[in-house]
Amino acid sequence: MPLTCSQLSVAYGRRMVLDGFDLALEKGEIRALIGPNGSGKSTALQALAGLIRPAAGSVAIDGRPVDAMPRRELARHLAYLPQQPTAPDEMTVAQLVRQGRFAHVGLFRGYGPDDEQAIRWALECTGLSGLADRSLTELSGGERQRAWISAALAQEAQILLLDEPTTFLDIGYQVEVLDLVYRLSRDRGVAIVMAIHDLNQAMSVCDRISLLERGSLVFDGDPHALAGTSLIEQVFRVHGTFVPIAADAPPHFDVELARRSSFALQRPRTASGR
Ligand SMILES: Nc1ncnc2c1ncn2[C@@H]1O[C@H](COP(=O)(O)OP(=O)(O)O)[C@@H](O)[C@H]1O
Ligand SMILES: [Mg+2]
């Protein structure tokens, strides 16, 4: 099992923001991590990436605890793309992607032909070969997002943690990223955990879904099983129905757009009338 954790908990100060999170990620599995804003998705990914020390529980890669693993070794196994990654302004796309490869580069050997090829491949996969020499500040939000994805790909890790990788992308690139995720899992056996807001995209691309509500895991199963519950309505406090779209595809959640306002937009007038 590439990535596992059991009863993982994270607290900020006294506040528990992730409480007893379990995951058993299989090789080649795509796991969608969903939940309302603030439910703990990013926290869970950071803890899985070994970046925050859990209050309880531990994370293991192939049975080895990540907190005992040297950083470079961890980076050869696991690539993590944060929700809001940052890099020095003047950095170019090529430099960023090169940096993604650092864990493979021998301390005295430098970048070899295999590394150069991995970098070219990562740029090609994300359609950035033509923008390699641009600085990150000269890119659109979507292009920058793809540059970060490219850097994670250059790492050629067997576990990929992506925090909302399709945010800021237009629908065409959203589909491309999801397609890339799908091919990485199926063709290369990469195991992926991806926080994602679009429920229907999550349902159609993932093998399993983990649903978080206020730090607790309230569902862990396949999309069809989720569609058999009313959890989405409860957790996100919306009305909607799962509608079948094709025999072999999970149903789509059709959300009801409430046109009834729960509060009056008209500001009450003061007694003076003005
Ligand atoms: N560095 C931090 N310090 C204190 N609280 C934090 C920190 N990061 C996140 N939180 C809190 O933890 C909760 C979970 O946040 P997060 O994991 O970012 O949720 P999500 O990614 O699902 O929107 C939120 O209530 C958030 O305010
Ligand atoms: Mg988040």
TrEMBL record:
GO terms for cellular component: plasma membrane. One of its GO terms (biological process) is iron ion transport. The keyword 4Fe-4S does not apply. It is a peripheral membrane protein. Transmembrane segments: none annotated. It is found in: Cell membrane. PROSITE patterns: ABC_TRANSPORTER_1, ABC_TRANSPORTER_2. Its main location: membrane. One of its GO terms (molecular function) is ATP hydrolysis activity. Residues 3-239 form the ABC transporter domain. Keywords: ATP-binding, Cell membrane, Ion transport, Iron, Iron transport, Membrane, Nucleotide-binding, Transport. Belongs to the ABC transporter superfamily. This is ABC transporter ATP-binding protein. It comes from Undibacterium oligocarboniphilum.
